Amino acid sequence: MINRRVQSIVNGYKPPTGKFPVFKRLAHFLNEGANKAPLDFFTYQDAAKAIFKNSDTVIPKKNQLELIKHSVAKARETLWDDYGKGLESKRKIGVRATTGAADAMHNDVIPHQNRIFSSAEKLSRKIKKVDRKELGQAPMGKMLLEAHSAAKNLISTVLTDNTWQRLKQLKEKNENE
Question: For residue 34, which of 100, 97, 94, 93 has the smallest C-alpha distance?
């Protein structure tokens, strides 16, 4: 189904003049899109059509899509740094810039936070199985012991005070309401 508002934004978008990397163009386009159509997603095809029009270089459509896909991570950073917005990405739907603090927290920050907590839990399970005595006897033992200590410190920092458990409970509570 074609979203006419999205198509209007794509067709009316004026890319910044000058030479900009694809990720900067993508961030600029998503920022404009969020200002004109909050909460609407743009497919990679929409983004490519918008940011590559009037381009000095002719890039085949297939390559344009690959460039867009590979630019999303840097575009996310640019949206935060240059526009104070997050980036929400949904598989098979598209991408969009967030529209405010609550939107950014819910759709960009919290998912990242959840991945960090999840990774810390996995790291915690693994580090418990590593025998420090064995590390000290291994080649590069000192470096391995330092890495082990650093991992334990990271785990204790991230998982202190059951923060992760409280956030999980809060999420479940919000989903049930």
Answer: 97
